[in-house]
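Weekend entry, working from home. Most of the wet-lab plans are on hold until the incubator is repaired, so I used the time to fold the two sequences that have been sitting in the queue since the last round of cloning. Logging both here for the record. First:
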Amino acid sequence: MERITTYANINSLTDFFRKRPSLEDQLDDMDWSKSWMDFYSFLNKQADLRLDVDPTQLSMMSKTNPYIKKMLKNASSGGSSLRCEKEAFEQLDEISQKTMPQTMFFLDKSNTECEDFEKKYGLITLNPSRIKSKAGFMFNWSLYNVTKDRGAVKRFEKWSQLERFRHPHNSMVIIDNYLLKDLGEMEENLIPMLDALLPEELEVTFQLTLISVDLRDKPLSMKKYIEWELNKKLNRPYQIEVCVIKTESNKNHDRNIFTNYLWMHSGHSFTYLRRQQVSKNTNLMLFPIFYQQKDFQSYYEDEPSSTESKSSVWEAVHQRIREARYIIKTASQSAHGVGGDLKNPIIMGNKTA
């Protein structure tokens, strides 16, 4: 099982456990009740927990805290894994630059300190009081009907609708055979899409990788053009570094976008708009990697494979990232297959452990 690296202060965990909603609270505040249960389930099933205690302390705490006792039990039976890495918490700045891009932090810090950490590194950073506000993004999937029918429910009309999915991240991979085919369609789709999704603040260079077929020019020329356009038009206070990968049409048919924490899947190319009007009829689905229901494939595939029908979103994303690595490996064997330096941590993978 693929797990999500989570650095957690033991004080944050115990504080979170104490905040478990009572039966009365569940009736008064159903949003908090659901948020608490979703995060608790994540901690027990999907996380690779790195804790700021030593094994002896953790063992002692498990004797008096039933939640920690259950976490230890789950860790020994296929649930979330637990590691005691007390020293790591003395160098979180260094860790944040070397860890997996999907890493999350659950820290004993104020809201302001958590927000500052997110803005600095583009990694989700929570404390117990921030869970409720973040749970909507982390544990729910969304669908838009991309259609010419103006009366359709949940209709996609413009890219700014996706601003509500803006979240801390520092990298993105876009796989779409036709997104870079036409400069006019790029202007109407790629640029406003990125404007809606990219974080407003970041202190590291944002890594953007585009994998496509129909390039008007060589990948290096396209990389320079896109980079110039984005850094000029998006008005972000950080640099956006682009890498363009040219692939063959028979090597890829998926239309996917991956950030550190979000997977966007489209039935057709993301070139939804032409002359400011919707020109496609398809679905746009957004799945956070924390989404835990394993039947999610039924939302976008008529006949999911037997393997995927049992996988989590993060496991499905992990598989697609491996496929993207193969495409890139093949492209890199061509003299003009890759434009720019590939530094994207989503593709490059783990730097430490």
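Second, folded right after the first finished:
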Amino acid sequence: MLISLHICNSLPKTPNLSSSSSSCPQNPPLYIKFRTSHRENLRYLKSLGIIDHNTKPHKLPSPQVVQHCLSTIDFLKSRGLYDTDFSRLAYLCPQLFDLNFDPSEIEPVLDFLITDLQASVQERRGIVVNCPRILFSNVEYCLQPTLSYLRKLGVKKLNVPSTLNAHLLNTRVEKLRKTLKFLRSIGLSHEEAAGFSSRMPAIFGYDIEDNLRIKFEFLVYEMGRSLEELKEFPQYFGFSLGKRIEPRHWHLKKRNVQIKLNRMLLWSDNRFYAKYK
């Protein structure tokens, strides 16, 4: 809302002036702005990416909604977020800027990331930006059990604000346990499965039937590799079957060459195919 004060320039009074001269002189009026206008607020929200620049005028948010958005922005910035973060937050979690959203709802998660995870303010910011949906997770029933389970497995440095860690923290314990169960089913002991996953925590993000099992079966039945080789190189599961594993396996097989998994998969294409022409 724009509140302005119109100030007339004062002039000395002169007798016998016409009635028209009793009004303010023709000098340009002076205005003092006390509050930012609704239009300027809309422009600010557009610059942050919260409002699409192509939004038609009749679909723009009301002053009430805009003020609520500004309050939410102030709250999040007070917790360490930057202007450059809001476009991603608005895209992935538009409910953050809904009129019914109360910033106090996400306070427990922000506190959890500092106190339980022991992340710094800057690390917390990175985790939130990488996985904004974590803000709406239940601390007691979701985040704390997951953190405890991962730590028991030996997964370290979960406070590092990587995309992997952010999504890992927001993964339910039930899904983590299913992955451990799969590792047990292919022949690993509980201790080996725990160590395997701590060395390759990204494994928790892969689908068991459509990814892990298919890669394991290709390793054993097509490549003729042993479980021991997999234990030595758990990162095997992180490579694409169709784009990396299969092409390189068949390339080597045609040349009757057998090398270790890590050497087969870690080398760049140029180095690999130059070596094994």
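Plan for Monday: verify the second prediction. The CA atoms of residues 125 and 255 lie 50 Å apart.
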